[in-house]
Write a structure and sequence with these properties.
Blueprint: E1 8-10, E2 13-15, H1 18-23, H2 28-35, H3 37-44, H4 48-55, H5 62-72, H6 79-98, E3 101-103, E4 119-121, H7 123-126, H8 134-142, H9 150-158, H10 163-171, H11 175-182, H12 189-198, H13 201-208, H14 215-224, H15 227-235, H16 241-247, H17 253-260, H18 267-273, H19 279-286, H20 293-300, H21 305-313, H22 319-326, H23 331-338, H24 345-353, H25 357-364, H26 371-378, H27 383-390, H28 397-406, H29 409-445, H30 453-494
Antiparallel strand pairs: 1-2, 3-4
Helix pairs in contact: 3-4, 9-11, 11-13, 13-15, 14-16, 15-17, 17-19, 19-21, 21-23, 23-25, 24-26, 25-27, 27-28, 29-30
């Protein structure tokens, strides 16, 4: 199960990567560290080396802790730089103190609810509080698409909301507003209950992913929610053990699959999922970074590639199993292992030495790729490897320049030629699939009652193969579009 990515609010900016975190680094990082949000953000982007460094920290003096966080993220940590960070935070606090956070709400909800009265809140005493003016409330009430009120929705999702405003927002007849409110970690129990009882499926899904959802509401959604709601709930890392126990035997395999990938999965549920009959559930469990070592060993003896690939994806996979999988005969297993951000440099080198270009392409995307292995891959003459390597955010500046020099206009024309050929081939297979499909329908729905099943089976088998070929070609065509666009960008840099 894929981890859901989210942006981290730092310095008034939603940071998406380590470079942006360094650029907008503030003392807010302390709050994100203490709340665990920083660790979740790092894990959502597979930045496991940074996440591991956080685990070595302990309850220290604030200034010492800030200095260590600066060191982890390669931010200047000398006395002058640290003082500048505190001065920036102090300035922001002074600005907040000097402004009254006045909420003027004299607009009626669209469903004809009661009038909103004027209320005043002090930001310094409440923290980073949502402030909505008259004009902004009108925007909320009239907006027909979330893009039109994106900043307001972000505030509603992430900032502290006074109880009175929570009630007013919950009365607005607008799903996108209630979805944002459902995701807010500061909403009180009464509002959680109201949204769970009366919300649409999408509102309940948003509520299910809220890490501050109280256990009573978790139980309620686990027992009354749709399959989609329970899938989102099962992924919630703050899910109580009682609720995990409710979901572990859910009749829907997709719910159990979601739970199997939860990094806060309790051991009792982990043990029960080890005996699950569904292969996708076991594959999700195999990829769970919280999977116990003894369970890794048991699953490693399985002969299903889906489960072994799940293990190869596991960020906390034992090195001895990584070594075993690097010798696997299956190409897909080695490709999956190559993407593992915890792969040691020695095994990165081993995978490169196999001279398997498909594996190298996957390795080139690995953000934990060691400098030495970056340099090895940059020696390749395969433009696919070079293009993917160029897009790796951890690629060193010197090696990036070497990649730029190696990519040529010949690579571009060759990619364009391949694209034209594959598009023709895809059209041919699509036409053939339509022809076989028509024949299959005639056999199944034809007037004769004596059509042999062997003919149906043969046509269905041919149909399945053509559909698989068409999917494979579509993936290749999509990659070529990406490759051509990136080569054109690289060639532009040369000029």
């Amino acid at each position: 199960m894929k981890t859901i990515k989210f942006d981290l609010a730092v310095g008034g900016v939603k940071v998406k990567n380590i470079d942006e975190l360094r650029e907008y680094f503030t003392t807010e990082i302390l709050d994100h560290y203490r709340s665990g949000r920083l660790d979740k953000w790092l894990n959502s982007r597979n930045l496991n080396s940074y996440s591991s460094s956080l685990k070595d920290l302990d309850g220290e003096d604030e200034k010492i802790l800030l200095k260590k966080l600066c060191n982890i993220f390669d931010v200047a940590s000398d006395d002058i730089s640290l003082q500048a960070l505190y001065n920036k935070a102090s300035t922001k606090s002074d600005i907040n103190e000097s402004e009254d956070s006045t909420l003027v709400d004299n607009i009626q909800p669209s469903d004809g609810g009661s009038d909103f009265s004027e209320e005043t809140f002090n930001q310094n005493s409440l923290g980073d509080v949502v402030v909505i003016s008259d004009s902004q409330m009108k925007e909320l009430l009239s907006a027909d698409h979330e893009d039109n009120i994106k900043d307001l929705l972000n505030d509603i999702k992430e900032k502290r909301i006074p109880d009175a405003l929570q009630h007013k927002l919950s009365e607005i007849d607008g799903e996108i507003i209630k979805i944002a409110l459902s995701r807010n970690q500061f909403i009180n129990e009464e509002i959680q209950t109201q949204l769970a009882n009366t919300g649409t499926s999408k509102i309940r899904e948003a509520l299910a992913e809220n890490p501050a959802l109280i256990q009573k509401m978790q139980v309620y959604l686990a027992t009354t929610g749709s399959e989609d709601v329970k899938i989102v709930l099962a992924q919630n890392e703050a899910l109580a053990e009682e609720v995990q126990t409710l979901l572990v035997d859910d009749e829907a395999w997709r719910v159990r699959e979601a739970l199997a990938g939860n990094s806060r999965l309790v051991v009792s549920c982990m043990s029960r999922l080890m005996d699950d009959d569904d292969i996708d559930v076991k594959a999700a469990l195999a990829s769970n970074s919280a999977l116990l070592s003894e369970f890794q060993d048991i699953l490693a003896e399985n002969d299903r590639d889906e489960i072994i690939c799940g293990l190869a994806r596991n960020k906390n996979l034992k090195e001895i199993l990584m070594i075993k999988f690097s010798r696997a005969s299956g190409n897909e297993i080695k490709k999956t292992l190559a993407r593992n951000s915890s792969l040691p440099e020695s095994l990165q080198a081993k995978l490169i030495s196999t001279n398997n270009d498909d594996v190298k392409i996957e390795l080139a995307q690995n953000e934990s790729l060691a400098i030495g292995q970056q340099a090895e891959l940059a020696k390749s003459t395969n433009a696919d490897i070079l293009v993917v390597l160029f897009d790796n955010p951890s690629l060193s500046k010197d090696i990036r320049l070497k990649v730029i020099q190696k990519v040529t206009s010949h690579d571009l024309s060759e990619a364009q030629r391949q694209l034209a050929y594959l598009e023709d081939e895809r059209e041919h297979i699509h036409a053939k699939r339509m022809e076989v499909g028509e024949s299959l329908n005639k056999v199944i729905f034809g007037s004769s009652l004596f059509n042999p099943m062997s003919k149906v089976d043969r046509l269905q088998s041919e149909m399945d193969k053509l559909e698989e070929n068409e999917r494979e070609l579509r993936d290749k065509v999509d990659f070529l579009f990406y490759k051509i666009e990136r080569i054109e960008s690289i060639l532009a840099l040369k000029k």
